[in-house]
Specification:
The protein has about 325 residues and is an all-alpha fold. It contains 14 helices and 2 strands.
Length: about 325
């Protein structure tokens, strides 16, 4: 719509460069690294059962929004209007005009992620309060606004992303209340996702599809062979989080080695399925195998209760 183009042109022309740079950084809160950090902390450190619920919630939205994108086929604003600049591409190393790499525009994946993760953690959590919910909504709004300012999404892309993300929070929350067997919910999401395998052409869908199965397979393995405990210790939490991020991102890169870059970026069905397999393995190892290291004391230090003996003194 013309008003969207005019608004984006006005924003890019009138917001000072340093402020645009600052605003653009909020996009990071809807990207892969932030999702790994937030969900990793919840799962590896805070509460793994809660982490699995948030993980399934995020997987659901990660699968659904590219399925919609591959039906609507809305091109990104900067691809259609030379007056709009792309200041933060989805794939920095790929051609800006490569739709397979950069993805379609509607709805905004960053906005969907932000609306799913941050309000979702508050709504799914036990200690709900108004301040946490307000802060999560503010962060969600900033992520969406940043996507318009950097030229990657029309305002209506962002509005739909917010709506879709919040809808997924309430739908998955409702399913958890009504269905006690988590495998049933996983099966429902997987069946819906399988439909996308037959028509989705963008890599973001296949990443999410692999993540879903990696998470699903990790649950029985972790329960049977690992069964790690949460930690309240800041040092252990940092080590678990950093170690987990290294394992995930390193595995993702290592698993690319047998395949050439040209093949991985070819957009063929085989390349997409390889991508799903790569993410499935990386997630499975990160969630089910990596926590075996938590048996070492440095990963499982606890904050002593008051009155508990610590060395020669009393905490």
């Amino acid at each position: 719509m013309s008003w969207e183009v005019q608004l984006m042109e006005w924003l890019q022309a009138n917001i000072p460069g340093p402020l645009i740079l600052l605003i653009s950084q909020f996009s990071a809160f809807g990207e892969e690294f932030a999702l790994v950090a937030v969900m990793g902390f919840v799962y590896w450190c805070h509460d793994k059962e809660f982490g699995r619920k948030i993980g399934l919630l995020v997987c659901s939205s990660l699968i659904l929004f590219p399925m919609i994108k591959n039906i609507v086929f809305r091109i990104r604003p900067y691809m259609e209007h030379s007056s709009i600049k792309c200041l933060r591409p989805v794939e920095p190393d790929a051609d800006l005009m490569d739709v397979d790499a950069q993805g379609y525009s509607f709805p905004s994946g960053h906005s969907t992620n932000a609306a799913t993760v941050y309000p979702g953690i508050v709504i799914f959590g036990k200690n709900k309060n108004r301040l946490k919910l307000v802060l999560s909504i503010i962060l969600m709004l900033l992520v969406g606004f940043s996507r318009v300012v950097v030229g990657c999404h029309y305002p209506t892309d962002v509005l739909c992303g917010w709506t879709l993300g919040l809808a997924m929070v309430f739908v998955i929350s409702f399913l958890y209340k009504k269905i006690k067997n988590q495998n049933v919910i996983f099966t429902m999401v997987a069946v819906i996702g399988t439909i996308g395998v037959f028509y989705c052409k963008t890599s973001d869908f296949f990443s999410a599809y692999g993540i879903l199965f990696g998470l699903w397979l990790s649950i029985p393995f972790e329960k049977k062979f690992v069964n790690f405990e949460s930690t309240r210790n800041p040092v252990s939490s940092i080590l678990r989080l950093v170690g987990g991020a290294v394992v995930f991102f390193a595995l993702d890169e290592i698993l690319k080695i047998p395949f050439g870059k040209e093949f991985l970026n070819s957009g063929t069905m085989v390349a997409h399925l390889v991508r799903s397999g790569r993410y499935m393995i990386a997630i499975f190892v990160s969630l089910a195998v990596y926590p075996m290291l938590f048996k070492f004391r440095i990963f499982s230090l606890e904050v002593p209760e008051r009155g508990e003996e610590v060395g020669d003194g009393i905490y």
